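in:
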C-alpha cells in the first residue's frame, strides 16, 4: 500500500521567559510520518452533506450566535459561570484516537470536537465552527507530575506549511496532577488559574496531533508513561459513530462512547443562525450542567437586572474564595517549601501568582460588565 503523507502538528516548547503575564506564543511546525492503519475510517462519500450551518439550529437553544470580524458567525454558551474555561466540565478518556474529551454539557458534542475556541474580552469564550472532527482541539503541557491543556487557537490548520503563532494567556490553561487526569470529576482537581504561571514553567509542551486515514489522532501524551507514574492501567474506550446529532451529552456505556463524528461539507453555509430570545438560567437546583432552558423563553428587564446583581455577588464571592485559597497554598509552601525550587524562587513565584490572579480577576470583572451592557441593549 502506498503510504500517505501525514501532517504532525508539533508545538514548539514555550520558554519560561515568554510565558510571563501577557501570554505565551504557540508555534505550529509540520513534519511527516508514514501512514499506519487505524480502526476507524472517514465516512463513505455522500455522507458529508451538511455544511457549517448544521450547527446553527443545534446550538441556538444553548447560547448566542453573533458575528465577529474575520471569523464570521461564532457562538458563545449561556449559563456558564464567570471564569469558565472550555474543557473543564467533563472528563478525559483514552481511545484509539488518543486523549478524547467527553463533555458534561448537553451541547458539548460539537464545540469540543469541531472548530476552535477564542477568548474575546467583550463576550468571553466564543466558539468558531469547524468542519473536521477531532478527539479534542487543545494544546498540551506535561512534566513533573502535572498535565495541562488549553483550547487550540483559531487559524491552526493541518495543511502542509502551517506556521502560526497564537496568543495564549496563562490563566486560560487548565492544570491537574497526572494521577487525576482520567477521573470522572476532573474539574474538582483543576488547580487555581493563578497557579498556571508556575506549572507552565515546570512542564514542557508535548502537543502532537497526527492524521491517520483522514482522522485526527492525539498523540500528545504517552499513556504508558502515565500508567507507570500513577501505577495503574488507564482504561481504553472505543468510539461508536452516531449517524445523527445527539440530543444530549456523549453517551458512555461500558467501554464504548457514542459520538457524532461526521465530516461536514466544504461549502459555504446555506443559512444564518436563528435568533433566540434570552432564556432563563439553565442550572437550577438539582439540574445537571448543560441542560438548556426552553428556547424562546422571554426574560423581562427586571429579571435581567436581578440576574446581573446575583452574578456580581457570585463573582465577588468567587474572587474572595480564590484569593483566600491562593494565600493558604502559599502559607503551606512557606512552611514546607517544594523540593523542586529554592526559597528565593518560591517567593518570586508566589508574587507572580498574585499578579496573575489580579490580572485574571480584573479581566473577569470587565467581561461581566461588558456582558451587562450587551444584555441591557
Amino acid at each position: 500500500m502506498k503510504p500517505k503523507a501525514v501532517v504532525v502538528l508539533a508545538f514548539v516548547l514555550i520558554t519560561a521567559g515568554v510565558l510571563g503575564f501577557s501570554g505565551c506564543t504557540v508555534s505550529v511546525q509540520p513534519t511527516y510520518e508514514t501512514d499506519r492503519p487505524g480502526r476507524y475510517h472517514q465516512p463513505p462519500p455522500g455522507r458529508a452533506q451538511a455544511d457549517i450551518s448544521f450547527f446553527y439550529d443545534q446550538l441556538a437553544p444553548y447560547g448566542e450566535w453573533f458575528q465577529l470580524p474575520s471569523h464570521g458567525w461564532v457562538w458563545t454558551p449561556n449559563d456558564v459561570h464567570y471564569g469558565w474555561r472550555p474543557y473543564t466540565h467533563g472528563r478525559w478518556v483514552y481511545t484509539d484516537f488518543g486523549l478524547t474529551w467527553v463533555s458534561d454539557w448537553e451541547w458539548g458534542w460539537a464545540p469540543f470536537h469541531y472548530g476552535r475556541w477564542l477568548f474575546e474580552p467583550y463576550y468571553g469564550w466564543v466558539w468558531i465552527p469547524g468542519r473536521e472532527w477531532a478527539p479534542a482541539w487543545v494544546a498540551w503541557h506535561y512534566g513533573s507530575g502535572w498535565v495541562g491543556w488549553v483550547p487550540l487557537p483559531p487559524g491552526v490548520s493541518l495543511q502542509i506549511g502551517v506556521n502560526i503563532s497564537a496568543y495564549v494567556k496563562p490563566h486560560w490553561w487548565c492544570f491537574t496532577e497526572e494521577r487525576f487526569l482520567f477521573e470522572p470529576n476532573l474539574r474538582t482537581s483543576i488547580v487555581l488559574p493563578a497557579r498556571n504561571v508556575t506549572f507552565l514553567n515546570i512542564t514542557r509542551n508535548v502537543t502532537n496531533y497526527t492524521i491517520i486515514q483522514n482522522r485526527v489522532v492525539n498523540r500528545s501524551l504517552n499513556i504508558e508513561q502515565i500508567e507507570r507514574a500513577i501505577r495503574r492501567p488507564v482504561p481504553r474506550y472505543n468510539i461508536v459513530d452516531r449517524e445523527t446529532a445527539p440530543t444530549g451529552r456523549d453517551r458512555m456505556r461500558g467501554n464504548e462512547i457514542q459520538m457524532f463524528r461526521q465530516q461536514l461539507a466544504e461549502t459555504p453555509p446555506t443559512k444564518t443562525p436563528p435568533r433566540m430570545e434570552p432564556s432563563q438560567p439553565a442550572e437550577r437546583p438539582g439540574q445537571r450542567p448543560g441542560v438548556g432552558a426552553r428556547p424562546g423563553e422571554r426574560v423581562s428587564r427586571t429579571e435581567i437586572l436581578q440576574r446581573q446583581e446575583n452574578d456580581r455577588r457570585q463573582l465577588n464571592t468567587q474572587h474572595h474564595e480564590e484569593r483566600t485559597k491562593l494565600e493558604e497554598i502559599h502559607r503551606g509552601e512557606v512552611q514546607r517549601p517544594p523540593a523542586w525550587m529554592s526559597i528565593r524562587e518560591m517567593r518570586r513565584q508566589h508574587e507572580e501568582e498574585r499578579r496573575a490572579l489580579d490580572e485574571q480577576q480584573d479581566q473577569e470583572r470587565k467581561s461581566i460588565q461588558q456582558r451587562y451592557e450587551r444584555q441591557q441593549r
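note: DSSP finds six helices and 18 strands in the chain.
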